[in-house]
């Protein structure tokens, strides 16, 4: 049941959002079309910085030593500081146009970046909430400061551990963390006790810089070093041995419960146009998502052993470089109540017949059957945090305190943090049909289908922020709970200190867009007009 909004500042914020809704829609599509991936979100970050400066915010660009991060402030006099943030990284291999058919964005191939969660809508919803809060503060003389951080590389939990370690979340009266719904029962609700878990990500780099030491050619060999070096296994062999050994041991590393996952991605491997020389460099990234830090350490120790063994067997040396070391989340019931009360005042998002018509087209084009009601029913329902928590716990062992993965968790150790969800468009499955990923990605880019989420989340963020600014009692209860849970606040007896003891991992061969004399493309060229020579025996 939606509750009436009676506070004048709240009404100003909601009116502001109604006025700028067309802009929010256009901005969401802009970030969606950028489709930039982790550590390479240059256009997206620049877009936010430009708009924040236009709105009167002071902006630190490149915050925390990350070129695509930022930290913005706007102050309306002495008072509490409220935190919000944008994410804007996309995912490689998910390039999808805002269309009802499977096709990449113009001029690109499917291997380019695309928004899956979608962070395009996440960031703009947060920006909308920020601007509406600012408008209400100005009109009604509400004192305080708004802090808005730009968070790159969320998909590898990249920026927030670094920002946390460098103090960007300190001094906040509250942090408001929004994410599009991505799994039931966490749809139009706030997390209660079970917050996201820990995550480690690292790159193992294998270097074969002394291949001549692998074997020794005879003194009579005409070019001894080359004859020796060409027989060295090299870095590719080390990477393959690391890959297979780690995959083979996965089932033995952790118990078969708890929702943990380990994934890998090969960043650099070999030299495609090299002569008969061993590969000098190969890199593989691992992402570990687990409930506890102890489990993350256990997996890391195993990876280190495998990397050492693979390097020794292939005549290489290895290096381990951190991408992320992220803490599990800390609950705050007072903040969860504030966020959910704000969402209840707004009500869940609603999809009109235009959006449903789009969804039906996608259902058919994705191999399904058009439904009268193409969206799952839960999208237009609220679920109370305690009820969602009870449903979530049904599939978890009682001893498990954290589940799934997201790096907002690092914020929760520095300020009272609310983590809430608003439904994104998701298709109803008729007859058990599994929809391909492009269908979900497309729904996140088409204005008719994604705008209801953005609008709803913007309103909830603004109302929650104004509650924290205006209600000293509610704000105090959230901080009291934070102090109690951490055993004294930052540095307290139960506080988990930042794990980040590494520089931002910005210098690796991360996937990105490139511009060459051939034009702008993904680093794996789409080259749609390419033709290949026929194989032997085939007719051209």
What does this structure look like?
By secondary structure, the chain is α+β, with helices and mostly antiparallel strands. The protein has helices spanning 8-34, 42-54, 119-140, 159-165, 224-229, 235-253, 293-314, 333-346, 353-365, 385-393, 437-443, 447-470, 472-486; strands at residues 58-61, 70-75, 81-87, 145-151, 174-180, 189-190, 198-207, 261-269, 281-290, 317-326, 417-422, 513-516, 519-522. The strands form 3 sheets. A 7-stranded mixed sheet has the order 1-2-4-3-5-11-6. It has a 4-stranded antiparallel sheet with strand order 8-9-7-10. Strand 1 and strand 2 (70-75) form a beta hairpin. Helix 3 crosses helix 12 (447-470), helix 8 packs across helix 12 (447-470) and helix 8 packs antiparallel against helix 13 (472-486). It starts with 7 loop residues before the first helix and ends in an 18-residue tail after the last strand. Residues 530-540 have low confidence and may be disordered.
